[in-house]
Each structure stands twice: as structure tokens, then as C-alpha cells.
Amino acid sequence: MANGKIVIGAETKYPLNGILTIPDETNGLFPAVVLVHGSGPSNMDEKIGNNFPFKDMAKGLSTKGIAVLRYDKRTLVYGKEMKNNTGLSVREETIEDAILAADFLRKDSRIDPNQVFILGHSLGGMLAPRIDAEGGKFAGIIILAGSPRKLEEILMDQGNDVLHSLNKFLKMIAKKQIAKLSSNFNNIYNLSDEQAKSTKVVGKYTRAYYFKEMGEHPSMDYLKVLDKPVFILQGDKDFQVSVEKDFTVYKNLLGDKSNVTCKLYPNLNHLFMPSVYGRILKTKKEYNVAQHVDKLVIEDIADWIRSIWK
User: Fold this and answer.
1) Which one from 132, 242, 270, 275 is the annotated catalytic residue?
2) 234 pairs with which residues across the strands?
3) Contacting residues for 156 by C-beta, under 8 A, at least 6 apart
4) Residue 13 per-residue DSSP state
5) Contact in structure between 71 and 102 (CB atoms under 8 Å)
6) Contact at 8 Å (CB) between 264 and 273?
7) Which of 99, 95, 119 is nearest to 32 (CA)?
8) Model pLDDT, residue 174
9) Catalytic one among 132, 238, 246, 294?
10) 297 occurs within a structural domain
């Protein structure tokens, strides 16, 4: 395989460094995958603790004849400029760059322009169907550890999971914080866009508008009408999304559609690596253990792409 340094959005205000990994074999055009990050600022390897899931994906998929494009997330490189943008939404944070990445791949003479796929992880998986609809025009959609729920619902659930693990004193403090967060979230869909842009809900900078705008474009609305291939994967020890509230809901709502494949992986966490502690309170410790994306996950994704790319 060959790793080539590239720039996504070179003509825009927010050029982003990336790497295009091209397989070694040269018999014809390659299918290709755009990797789309989870939440928060993230580099092209999607570094989380001592783990590099996107680097693993690029290496693994390219050895199976699939080109892979990964790039630094806009909020990592331009976070300082963007934090005061009260109208920030997932469009500026994620969607625009993923579409530019897809366009970039289609212009590469080594890539089959009709076989460009999106692989979204976590928040990227939640957004993948919308990215496809808003200009990605992918051959298929791969959702890793995504969710059919709204982002604020997931955050509230994560907060409650933490709450249940705390001692009595910390529980009192956390309960108040979670109650405040809940009341902030409960009202966001009653706000006008302008009101939402001036209402902070999480931390110093995150506005209600970010959640409102995303919540008004539910991923399930896109998935229900899609007829292109969709592959939904989750680890059963993922404590950031839920088997019951996420994977099973995807399966129940979409499982009858012939274009949708769902697979649950035993003992894998949110990064599709072996579970270590399996508890949300130990998130940092869990991801500080250096591991690699499970080989079966990479094989399944490659086989799925190969079954479409004929």
C-alpha cells in the first residue's frame, strides 16, 4: 500500500491535511472509503487515548484492495476560529468536509468514481446518511457505533450511566448537573434558530443551535427511504452507545429492508477493540490501553464492499 499526503478543501477557508492510502495491486480501478470521525476535535487517525482506529482501518482495508481517505477534522485544526461561531452546526463541523473528500476521491484516476463509500464512526455514523443525501452520493453507507437517537438523548444517557456508578456525595452533585443539562435540552426545539444560537447548553461554547439543527435532521428519516446498501456494526461492550437503544432499534426499524445488514460483535468496545473495563467511568483508562481494531471487523467491511463492487 502507498500513503499519499493530500489536502481536502484546498480552495476553501478551511484546508485540511489528510492521507490517501492506495492498495498495491494495480489491476484496474479501486473502490474507496471516506472515514468520518466521531464527536469532538480529532486527527486523521481518529486518535483516542493510545488508539488510532482510522489508521488501523486505512491499513487493513487497503491490504484488501480498498483505497481509504482520512483527514484531520475541521474543529481540530480551526477550533479557535470556530468556537465563537454561534451558528456552528454539524454541517460546518463534519458534513461539508466529508462531501469534499468524496469529490476528491472521484477525481482520482485510480478510483472507481461509482464505488466511493462512507464509513462514519460514532457521530460520523449518525451523520453518514445525511452526508450521503446532502451531496456525498455514496455507493453505500457503513455506520460504526452510530445511533438512531438524538445526540442530546445519548449524552443524557451517558450522564445517567455515570451517575449510577458514583458514591453518595458525588451522586448529589452530578444529579444537579444532569438535571440542569436535562432542562437545557428539553427546551431546545421550542427556541427559534436565533434564540438557540444565543443559548449555551454544554460548556462555555456549545450552543443549543448545534443540537437543534442536528436533531431536526434525524438519521432514521434518511435511512428509512434509502435503497442503497447500508452496513451497521456495533460492539456489544460499547458503553457510549447502547445495544438495546441503538443497535436493536436500527435492527427493528431497518432489519426487514434487503439493503441493510446489521452485525453485533461480542466483547468489542466503541473503538471496535477488545473491551478492557467495560464501564463509562473508566473511559479514559479503557482508551489508554493501546490496541487495534479487531481484524474481523475490517474483514467484514472489506467483504461487504467487495460484494457491492463487482
Assistant:
1) 270
2) 264
3) 178, 181, 182, 185
4) S
5) no
6) no
7) 119
8) 59
9) 238
10) yes
Residue 163 has pLDDT above 60, yes or no: no
Mean pLDDT, the chain, rounded, equals 90
Which residues are paired to 143 by β-bridges? Answer: 120, 232
Whether 236 is catalytic is no
Averaged pLDDT for residues 246-262: 94
In a domain, 48, yes or no: yes
pLDDT digits 0-9 by tens, 150-162: 888 887 777 665 5
Q: Is 122 a catalytic residue?
A: yes
Whether residue 203 lies inside any domain: the answer is no
> Is 164 an annotated catalytic residue?
no
Task: Select which of 122, 147, 219, 275 is catalytic.
Answer: 122
Q: Tens digits of per-residue pLDDT, 255-274?
A: 899 999 999 999 999 999 99
Range of the domain at 50: 2-148+218-308
What's the predicted TM-score (pTM) here? 0.93
Q: Could you give the number of structural domains in the chain?
A: 1
> How much is the average pLDDT of 194-215?
84
C-alpha cell at 103: 469529490
Q: What is the CATH number of the domain that holds 228?
A: 3.40.50.1820
Q: Kindly give, in sequence order, each residue whose CB lies less than 8 Å from that of residue 180, ignoring residues fewer than 6 positions away.
A: none
CA distance 156 to 184: 11
